[in-house]
Structure formats: C-alpha cells, structure tokens
Design goal:
The complex is a heterodimer of chains A (129) and B (351). Chain A is an alpha+beta fold and 129 residues long. In chain A, 18% of the residues lie in helices and 34% in strands. Chain A has a single domain, classed as OB fold (Dihydrolipoamide Acetyltransferase, E2P), CATH 2.40.50. In chain A, a hairpin with a 3-residue loop joins strand 6 and strand 7. Chain B is an alpha+beta fold. In chain B, 48% of the residues are buried. Classes of the chains: A alpha+beta (129), B alpha+beta (351).
Chain lengths: 129, 351
C-alpha cells in the first residue's frame, strides 16, 4: 500500500513535513498522489510570501480536478521547487523526493506538535502501509 | 461507475488506442409504444423520428416551450410502434414527469404507452478501435430483433439489434460517447454483469481496460460531445449549443420550435465554442470566466488537460462575436488570465 516514511510528520489533508532546523519542507503524501493520479499542473507560492498554518497556498491539478494544498505550519516561504512545476509528474513518481512543493521558515515551531505522527497518519488513511 | 479504475490517463489512452469498457448502468431507459408513439415522440423531440426505420437510432433533444433543453438522448425505433429512449441518469425524474405531462395533453394518448424501465436495465459501453476485433466473440450469432444482421459488427452506425447472449436478450447499438468506434449494450442486470466479465476476458489480449467516469468525461470533451448540466440545461437551446443539425425545423410542429426557428433565423445571445490553451497554464475547468478584448465574454462549461494532446482544452459559451474559429480569448484561472484560442470541433481528431 502507500508509503509513509517514519521520519516525517503529516496532516489530515495529506501533506508531509520534513523538519530541518528552523526550516520545514512540504509535499503531499504517496497516498494523496495515488488518490489524485496523473498530476498535470502544480502552482506554488513565491519565496517571501508569509503563510499561516492551514492556509491554502498551493494548487495541485490532476486531469480530473484542482486541489488546494494547505501549509501545515506558519512562516515565510523561502524556496519553491521549480522543477516540479515544469515536471508535475514528479509528484506521482517521487512524492517524498523530487516531488516536494516548498520550504518554509518556521515562525512558530510549537505548531509542529500538532502534526500527525506516521502511525496516526497511517490510521487515518485506513491501515496498511 | 467509479471515477477511475487504474487512472484516468491510462484508461483514456486505452480507449483511444485499443479498447475500454464502461459500466453505463446509471443511464435511464424509457419505452414509448403504440400506434401514436411516433407522432408523440416527434412532438416532444427535436429530431425527425420518422426518419428512423426499425433497428435505427438517432441523437435527439427534448426541449421545453422556451427551446431550453430538458435532456439530450438517443431514440431508437425497435419496431414500427416501439421506441426506446436512452436518457441521462440525472434527468430520469424530470424527463419522465415531462413526458407524462406531455402525454396527458396529447390527443392520441389512448394509443400511447410510456414506461420508465430505468430500474430494469443495466448497460455497458465497449469503445475503442480494437473492439470490432472481438465483440462478435463476446456476443456471437445473428440478431433476432430490431435490425437484422448476421453479426454485431454488421450493425452500421446508429443501428440497434436484439441479440441472444447466453440465455439473455440484449440490445446492441453501434454508438458511443468517446469519439471512437464501439458498441453499447443494454440488458438485465444479470446479463450485463456476465457480459462485462466476458468482454473483459475476451478483450484482454487486445488491451481492454475497465474505464470510469473520469475517462468518459475527458474522452467526450476531446470530441466536443455535450454533457447535460455542463453544455446543456433548461435555459440553453440546441441552437446555442451548436446542435442545429439535430433540429430539423421543417419537420412540423414540436416543443420549442418557435423559439428555435427564431434563433436559427435571427441569431443567438451565446454560442458554444471549443478552445485550446495557447500558453502554459493550469487546466481550464467549468465555471472559469472567459475574456475577449479585455472584457468578460463568457464562461467555461467543460475543461480538462487533454490526455491525447497533453494541453488544456475545453468548451464554453461566449458572446457570438467571439465564436469564430481562431478568435483569441483568455481563460481566467484563479484570478489570472491565460491565452487560449477558439478551435474547430472536435478538438481531437484521429491522425
């Protein structure tokens, strides 16, 4: 079934968060890309934009539909993943690697505690990894 | 029918290049029979039902008095006095209510029987260029009713024949909603369930895939077939939708005729166009605004990333002055406008 790396944190809306010091990298999970299938377009926030936790700040489009991506944490966007906007199928092929969306400088590290553990996310997506 | 089985793009390309099977059991079926059935249907439907010999079908529309579309459908003449209407799932209730109300006002209603058989029938569509290579092996033998042919593949476009499949009677028509060659088969739940499995098994060496609503939508969008609720509704006429071919105005009186004839002669306030994105953008989607010459010019009714051409495509209503092929328009996507061009229908053509 879907891949849920143990070193990441997750949201109910299927984003993953990789924390490195005061910066977090955000993407969408293997489960999410599998549900969307055939990602054809990714729209990402520009560096410098300040976002709040839970704010819609990116859009991923499959053939069928457009889906908002919510920032799991508050802070300032420091980098967007240009290659994924040019090659959107990276979201399908490498959701946790080349398919990342953006990096954010955390303004409130305590928000990380509210994110889901891999075990909790696994339960939410209906079981087996 | 699920949105997808294995993925919209994979299913879509299977239908374009090989074969796909769709569960279309949600479609509604209404029968009209009796000595007055043809006359009644010719009054409630836009196309000329008298052109149909037994075993033939036609695309047609059912309009209200304002010329607005109550539904678009296929009408088949199974025998001289028996007709089968295949209607949209979302329109079964309004269609049946409308037909019954029209029948009540119809002078010859004593010789007309209308039956909503939607719950008695299931249906599948086998679509794609390779379907003709194996469909006769799925439903062997000659037809026994409606159009008499020696084999399913002898049915010409829009013809319908009754065949025996195992010990069931099924109706097979040479029709589809994908722009590819193919057949649609109506029968009992049990017959269609068996047939689904048989077509998948026999078609497997030919590359057949089960296909969902997502691929059905992208396939029909590429070839500009309208979808009720998107391109058609009770406030939109067939003339506005570019479906005048299915509205022979000289066939005699029928519902909506006065308005449709007026539009045909005097013009319309909106026209359905097909368009392609001409710059990189997110795919167009229904309800996105259309701009032309810096002003709002219309609205998108269907849009997607074309799996066959890998560009954004769609259909939408625009002011008539912007409906000409080649007109430069813009599609507003999340507050930003992106360049597009009006193109001929269908958007996708087999090369």
């Amino acid at each position: 079934m879907s891949n849920i790396p143990s070193e990441l944190k997750y949201t109910k809306s299927h984003e993953w968060v990789r924390v490195n010091g005061d910066t977090a990298t955000i993407g969408i999970t293997d489960h999410a890309q599998h549900e969307l299938t055939d990602v054809v377009f990714v729209e990402l926030p520009e560096a410098g934009r300040k976002v709040k936790a839970g704010e819609a700040c990116a859009v991923v489009e499959s053939v069928k539909t457009a889906s908002d991506i919510y920032s799991p944490v508050s802070g300032e966007i420091v980098e967007q993943n240009k290659p994924v906007t040019e090659k959107p199928d990276l979201v399908n092929t490498e959701p946790y690697a080349g398919g990342w969306f953006f990096k954010i400088k955390l303004s409130n590290a305590a928000e990380l505690n509210a994110l889901l553990s891999p075990e909790d996310y696994k339960k939410q997506t209906g079981g087996s990894i | 029918m699920p949105v997808q089985y294995t993925g919209i793009v994979e299913e879509h390309l299977a239908v374009r290049n090989a074969a796909g099977i769709f569960d279309i059991s949600h479609m509604g079926e209404v029968t009209a029979s009796g000595a007055a059935a043809a006359e009644f249907l010719n009054h409630v439907l836009t196309n000329d039902i008298r052109r149909l010999a037994p075993g033939e079908g036609q695309y047609t529309l059912m309009c209200n008095e304002r010329g607005g579309v109550i539904d678009d459908l296929y009408a088949y003449r199974l025998s001289e006095e028996v007709f089968l209407l295949i209607i949209n799932a979302s329109r079964i209730e309004p269609d049946v209510a409308w037909l019954q109300a029209q029948a009540a006002k119809f002078p010859g209603s004593g010789e007309l029987q209308l039956t909503d058989a939607s719950h008695q029938y299931a249906a599948v569509a086998a679509q794609g260029p390779r379907v003709k290579e194996f469909i006769n092996a799925c439903i062997p033998g000659a037809s026994v009713s409606a159009m008499r042919v020696n084999a399913v593949t002898d049915l010409r476009k829009n013809q319908i024949g009754g065949f025996q499949f195992e010990n069931h009677s099924v109706l097979v028509s040479h029709t589809g909603y994908t722009g590819e060659d193919g057949f649609e088969i109506v029968g009992s739940d049990e017959a269609i369930q068996h047939l689904w499995n048989r077509i998948l098994a026999v078609g497997q060496p030919f590359g057949i895939k089960p296909c969902g609503l997502g691929a059905r939508d992208t396939l029909r969008t590429e070839v500009c077939y309208p979808l009720y609720g998107h391109e058609l509704d009770e406030d939109t006429t067939p003339i506005e939708a570019g479906l005048g071919f299915f509205v022979p105005l000289n066939k005699g009186e029928f519902n909506g005729r006065a308005v449709l004839a007026g539009q045909n002669a005097g013009g319309v306030k909106k026209k359905l166009v097909a368009f392609k994105m001409t710059e990189k953008s997110a795919p167009p989607r229904p309800h996105y605004p259309i701009w032309a010459n810096g002003a709002n010019a219309g609205i998108v009714t269907s849009g997607t990333q074309s799996p066959s051409m890998n560009i954004g495509i769609g259909m939408g209503y625009v002011l008539p002055e912007f409906a000409k092929q080649g007109t430069k328009i813009e599609i507003e996507i999340r507050g930003k406008r992106f360049a597009a061009a009006v193109v001929p229908k269908p958007i996708y053509r087999k090369t």
